[in-house]
Amino acid sequence: MKKCIKGIPVSLPKKEKIMFKKRLLLGMVILLVVGMLFAQGAKEEKKTVIRWMWLPEAMGDVENGPFMKALQAKFPDVEFQLEPVLYSAYPDRFPVMIAAGDVPDIFQGHTQYMPQLVEADLIYDLTAALPKYGPDIVGNARDGQLRYGQYGGKQYAIPGSYLLKYFSQNIRMDWLEKLGLEVPRTLEEFREVARAFVAGDPNGNGKKDEYATAFRTNVNFIDSFFLAFGVAPNHHQTGMWQVRDGKHTFDWVQPEMKEALMELASWYKEGLIHPESLTFGWNDWWNAYLRDSVGMWYHQPRRLSEMNTALKQAGVEDANMWPIAPPIGPKGLSGTANEGQPWATFFGKNGNLEKCIEILNYTYTQEFFLACGGRNDVYYPSQRTLNEKGWPKFYSYEEMLADPNYEERRTEVLYSMLYTGWCIENPNMTNTWPDRELAEYVKQQFKNTLSPAQVVGNELADTYAVTSSKPVPVPADAKYFTRLQDKFREIASRIVSGRGNPDATWNEWLDYYAKNGGPEIEKEVNELFPL
Amino acid sequence: MDTSKRTRAQSWKPLKSLKSLQREIAKNKMLFLMAIVIMVWYVIFRYVPYYWNLIAFKDYSYRLGFSGSPWVGLKHFKDAIADVEFRRVFRNTVIISGLKVFIGFPVPVILALFLNEVFQNWYKKSIQTVIFIPYFISWVIYASIMITILSPTDGLLNIMLRSMGKEPIYFLASTEWFRPLLIVSEITKNSGYFTVLFMSALASVDEEVYDASVVDGANLFQRILHINLPGIASVVAIVFIVRLGQLFMSGFEQVYALYSPMVYSVGDIIETYVYRQGIVGGRFDYTTAVNLFGTMIGFTLVIITNYVSKKISDHGLW
Fold it and tell me: B261 to chain A: which residues are within 8 Å by CB?
């Protein structure tokens, strides 16, 4: 038995001494590793947390895509906390979020909410910080784009690059051919074609199940018919303003709006418009077209190839939805409406302004483009390969057609571009990229991805777009617009569906408008946007 | 016939003193323990939010927040009363709720009374199950089924109408049909639940009394009228009072899932109006006032009904 003091042997044999030293060394190594782990943990705790709220439908599974991976690589000091909110849940979420005073660092939303966000002091004024921390955002912005994010003379948001001229009137060209009809030009010719679509069984199934056109929720997504009378509800009913007699005037209360509604009412009564479409949601609307039962479609040219592919997948082999000029009304007017007040990116007042602008700015840069290989989606391999310079080489439209699943995946890409620097429809994109050869190459690559229908549709959209003269909300909108919007929806659907006396219904609307803030909004619009 | 025997539900009496409460707690510890969870839920989700009803008396500003917003007294209540839209949703709410109560309420009572007379057990259970199942389907699903069946283009009902040479009807967009559809769908969906409730109350009716009446030669109608109905009167009264208290809650989920701007004139109710104007439109102060107004009337109705019920039948909530 060896002598021990407090359990430690006073004198150890050589072998045991070596063992003791080994154990001591092992203990020290373990301590070191644990210490390093703790240090690492402490270091990670110092990361800036950025809460980013986005729409899953609009940006795909961003969290797992090359988009976010490129951002994480560029900003290792940032921990991104992504907060997905369904597009359909957005209208509920936004006002409550504002009332609760809890907004994320970066979030996308409709500029309709800008007055409330500013009043609640929840978003940053970007006027000074944007040029400093977001030079690529400013440099690559579409012409006039930033104006749509200003409120009270200050920059509060970065509007999506997709805005402005991007809607077209489209028609089933294959139906026209089957029935031996010419492309309609005037509203009367459109009506004749509509009657032929309904009576002529262009889908050839022997049933009377065709309609000329369909609304998407209330009287939305049919602005081209309204603009034949010179007014528009705007496809999301965010309001359409035009200058008349030297003043900004609201389209919804013009006598021409009543005329347009009455015209649509007669179409509805005649069975030319899908009877259920006044209550259609997005899926009902889309499916009505896919059932090969609706011939005229008002939408973005970029969705045309998606529609045609979906129709073909649904078994309509010769489907050809094609863009045409919008109908000309009785006074010679015609047009397609723009976005009105667009969606935009806001920065919540949580102490991270510079970092947030830097992050968004990065998505506009050449470096980001190369870092994520030209992709900010998850599913779609938009780049076929890299060229000899290591630049992404995209599928051309013809190559895409060979891929049966292309359209589905392409949609992800298109949506993901809406709220970041990516937007193939933005002619200024790549303006600030240092490698001009790459910039030109990318523009050409993107151009090659466009379908022939989209090229024609874009040109038509550029030619016929009618732009709202009121780019952003005014303070009175926060108080009154929702109730006016709510009432207009009711009035429009009542007149179009033929319920009640249309004159009395219209007068009811004018009376409601006059008593519920309409004149106040008009006054502010004319004061804040002097002509 | 002795119908004075009190059921278990009728035998509950208020506690006279703190000591008797203590005794009761000691005796039914587990029951009280389980009740605590429910009470905590009620306090958190039903009573605590009452405080924020004060927003109805303030001119709520996002900038100033709840506490900083200025006090405006009854302004929003006056605005609501002057608002033609509010008057419409108020009228719709009363009509729809009233029809649901006065048409829909007797249905499960009648069903329960008649089912109670069915002595083929398998048949009774089958009917009970069939009418009870819709209660477990959410309104969103139930509405989807209705929308499909009632579709003017390819709905089953309109296909039948067409085959009979009649014009199709867009039921859900029709101001004439919308309210009846609400009532019918409410009855078909929820009657099963209340039927089971009343049937369980009927189970507590003394069988001896029932047997005696048969011996005495009472027919089916007399047995229902003089034994079964008085036997469940207390439960019926309580359910009726509770339903009246919900007069201004016409069923948000049901209406929201089925309505559209085309039927606002007959189908827009306080809850859907509050949702659109309050949650979506951000008019929190005004819509709180609207909701509070309806709730106060509902509360008053409960008190009056309870008083009347006690006077007439000696049955009430308190």
Answer: 218, 278, 489-490, 492-494
Q: What percent of chain A clears pLDDT 90, i.e. is strictly above it?
A: 50
Cβ pair A499:B172 closer than 8 A: no
Instruction: Please give the pLDDT value at position A510.
Output: 98
A12 found inside a domain: no
Query: pLDDT tens across A196-246, in order?
Result: 999 999 999 998 899 999 998 888 889 999 999 999 998 878 889 999 999
Do the chains contact at B62 and A92, CB–CB below 8 Å? no
Is A35 inside any structural domain?
no
CA torsion sign for B179, B184, B186, B191 is positive
Q: Parallel, antiparallel, or unpaired: how do β-strands A336-337 and A465-466 relate?
A: parallel
Q: Which residues of A touch B84 (CB under 8 A)?
A: 512
Instruction: Nearest chain A residue to B82 by CA: give it.
Output: A515
Q: Are residues A176 and A320 in the same domain?
A: yes
Domain of residue A385 covers 49-161+342-434
Architecture per CATH, B76-313: Orthogonal Bundle (1.10)
- CATH number for the domain that contains residue A266: 3.40.190.10
Number of domains in chain A: 2
d(C-alpha B273, C-alpha A483), whole Å: 10
Q: Which residue of A has its CA nearest to B150?
A: A276
Instruction: Please say whether the beta carbons of A449 and A395 come within 8 A.
Output: yes
**Cross-strand partners of A5:** A8
Of A120, A275, A482, the CB nearest to B280: A482
Q: Average pLDDT of A138-158?
A: 90
Which residues in chain B have their CB less than 8 angstroms from residue A275's CB?
Answer: 152-153, 170
What is the per-residue pLDDT across A403-414, written as a single tens digit (0 to 9) for each?
766 665 555 445
Domain boundaries, chain B: 18-50, 76-313
Measured in angstroms, the CA of B295 and the nearest CA of chain A are apart by 22
Q: Nearest residue of B to residue A515 by CA position?
A: B83
Coil, helix or strand at residue A8? strand
B318 touches B242 (CB < 8 A): no
The secondary element (H helix, E strand) that includes residue B82 is helix B75-82
Q: Does B139 touch chain A (CB under 8 A)?
A: no
Tens of pLDDT along A67-117?
A: 788 889 999 999 999 888 877 777 778 888 888 888 999 998 888 889 889
Chain A interface includes B49 (CB < 8 A): no
Residue A166, SS3? coil
